[in-house]
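Weekly structure sync - notes
Attendees: PM, LS, DV (DV joined late)
Agenda: review two folding runs queued last week.

Item 1: First target. Sequence and structure tokens pasted below for the record.
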Amino acid sequence: PSVKGRGALRAASMLLAALLLLGVLWAVARVAVYQQTDDRERLERKREYLAEIAELVEGRQAAAPNVVLILFDDLGYGDLGTYGSRSIRTPSLDRLAREGLRFRNAYAPAPYCSASRAGILTGRHAVRSGLDHVLQPAGSWPDLLLRLGGRNRRLPAEEITLAEVLSAAGYATAMVGKWHLGDESPSLPNDRGFDSFWGLLFSNDQGRPRVRADREVIEGPPIDQSTLTRRYTERAVEFIEGRDDRPFFLYMPHTFPHVPLHASAAFAGRSPGGLYGDVVEELDASVGAVLAAVERRGLAERTLVIATSDNGPWFQGSRGPLRGRKLDVFEGGMRVPLLISWPDSPAAGRTIDEPVPALDLFPTILDLAGLPLPADRVIDGTSLAGLLVDGEGLAPRPIVYHQLGVPRAVRSGRFKYHDRHAVSFGNPMNWPWGPQRYCGPWLFDLELDAAESYDVSGRHPAETERLARRLADWRAALEANPRGWL
């Protein structure tokens, strides 16, 4: 090139370098000044609601039911004997199914950790709290990306958790296990209604895991993951056996069977299902130990017990007859085991076929405890108390499937509609970056085709149009009022 051309090239290169430098400086500054803010008006409304709860129940806490909520991490639909497993022995959970209710079409709020836990503890879709993604440890590169994008990295303070309501109602509250809803105040377990906390703030493969007792790190890194389930169980039993006359809420979100898998010496090498089976069989034994503690204390006749999973299985684990795995909006990513035991329920021993989202747990527990829902926000779940107490049937309603906060599918009765979206193939953890193809829209008949193998939209055009419209209406409602404030 000529001298003039070389000068123009040099100037263009310098301009590009300057723009890149400015971009880097902007990104560094954005990350450095990032601060998640809370909604002060709604936070005040929350305080007023909790104060009203405390006033409402004064003097009558003794009649309230105890609650044990057990949540497994990445347990598959087909991993329990009562859901068809032949490789893994789960006598405690199978007994819970026989003596309580087994739900055949239960759905996690999301196909991955943080969003699902936010939904279970608030009764609201995670998109409402801005937790439609997986939270990351502070300082990790995924956390820096969340900060760069201005995304929430903890459960907002104005969201109301089940533990906060029950604590206001005079319950003794304890959490034993994995939190995954934030690693800083005001969103640590002890900030959000739990009197005590023992466990991990994140998944066991994120960063360098540390065991915490309340706000203090008591072990690690590294930690002995092979003894986590046993130690969770010991602390849960201690809480039950050491309780006073108050009703209690025990939230027990297990670390496993999330990878890396670890089983204690007493269970390692024992299951026909390999190491994964060892882990699940130890989890089943943990459930048995917790239920035995409830029975020893003579509390079984006034204790609600719930066991479920936060999403479908990951690399191992069974999705049963379903398609998809964790992260998918196919059934295998979000349809999960759900077992509920309520004393003297006329529905005990039944298998419930109606679709039920885990968002229902929040309003169900409050209903059984005689507590009103907050009136200033949408609660997306519906109480199951009528089913548990009187054996009432469940009214039909749609199930919406979200992926990264975007509604991607909807089920109504036997039919499920998928919009056109990226479908991963190969390793499910490649999503959303790996091999994909845009597919759909599709309509599946889940009654005949639980594996979502055959698109029948051409055979049922009216049903396809109806569900497409329902999904579009849901999206419009979220856009108009994303936080669900009333």
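Item 2: Second target, run right after the first with the same settings.
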Amino acid sequence: MRLEGYLERIGLQGARPDRAFLDRVVLHHACAVPFENLDVLAGRGVSLEPDTVYDKLVVRRRGGYCFEHATLLAEMLGRLGFTLDVVAGRARVSRPRPEPATRTHAMLVVHLDGEDLLVDVALGARGATAALRFSADRQLTPHDVRRVLREDGVWFHQVEQAGVWVDASETRLEPMPPIDMEVASWYTSTHPDSGFRRQRMVARALPDGGRVTLADEVLTERHADGTVIRQELGTPEALAGALREHFGLEAG
């Protein structure tokens, strides 16, 4: 695992363990490394062994889901000089309260200059593109407005959409060691009720403030000016072309 290789993958140079550089890492990571579950759908399985994750996401320029992103980011941020913890959470995308969500999400808490910051980049189209303070105040990121609100002992990571706060994830800040990530990842990638087994999910933030997502055969481009373009990919060739053009991925 080479820090220089990771920085080249996300298009950054230098290394400074400060807030400004942390935000740059999070933004560049979200724009360069897609969120995707193609290996889960293909039945290949998901390894969280750090060297394997590095080979997949950096060397082979693939993407992955939250456990893979958390594994890579934790290692690389540590090498950049940041102090952090991996914590367990629950993704609330498409699961409005009070519907329960499984404890199958991983995120990072970075400890910097006496403050804790949430790094929650791997949430598909709702991944944050900057580190977030644990505060109910509105926080402007390169792509949207966020906050981290505490209610009944739970921290809710929320995004503002059309003037309404929508839950993206939640956490009680419980540590998530590798063995716990392995168990949660096994459930997520193999259980027949897991959404990752039923639908193709690919997402990437765009440098201009927009996002592009693929849900099964529907490609959606959301641009920073509010323009939304949806396209139904009706053939395997169109799907392969979209994966290559918009996400840098090969369909196979």
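Discussion on item 2: The longest strand covers residues 83-91.
Action: LS to circulate a short write-up before next sync.
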